[in-house]
Write a structure and sequence with these properties.
- This protein has about 130 residues and is mostly helical.
- It has one domain: Recoverin, domain 1, CATH 1.10.238.20.
- Helices cover about 65% and strands about 5% of the residues.
- It is built from seven helices and two strands, in the order αβααααααβ.
- Strands 1-2 form a two-stranded antiparallel ribbon.
- The chain is globular and about 30 Å long.
- It starts with a helix and ends with a strand.
- GO terms for molecular function: odorant binding.
Length: about 130
């Protein structure tokens, strides 16, 4: 029990990161739509920038709407609320088909498109994290 508590306390201090190439690809993808989606969703710019830098995907309505806006513009989210696997895998080659399938499955019970967008992003970001141990 003591070992578990110690691990629980120090685990957040393990450095986590996402490969710089992923940052580049994602930032280039969203660049044409970022300002518009920030404006329409009223999301905090700092939260947007922290998504990949600090691996934090905020679970709040404005961030959900921001992600939905981005995914709509990228044609990753279909009008019926399903995710276009082919488009996602083509535009985000750093996402494996296995990770995508796992993450899309986690979004399926959700009916709200913005919440689905959040669930997908959160799952993928967590799936891409590497630890420098």
């Amino acid at each position: 029990m003591k070992v578990f508590l110690i691990l629980l306390l120090i685990a957040p201090s393990f450095p986590k990161k996402i490969d710089n190439h992923i940052h580049e690809v994602w930032n280039n993808l969203i660049k044409p739509y970022k300002e518009q989606c920030i404006e329409t969703s009223k999301v905090n710019l700092e939260e947007v920038n922290n998504m990949l830098h600090q691996m934090i995907v905020p679970d709040d309505e404005s961030f959900h709407n921001y992600l939905k806006c981005i995914y709509n513009h990228l044609k990753m989210l279909e009008p019926d609320g399903t995710f276009n696997h082919k488009v996602i895998l083509e535009k985000a080659p750093y996402v494996s088909e296995e990770l995508l399938n796992t993450c899309v499955d986690k979004t399926n019970p959700e009916k709200t498109f913005a919440k689905k967008a959040f669930l997908l992003a959160d799952c993928i970001v967590n799936g891409l994290i590497t630890h420098d141990d």
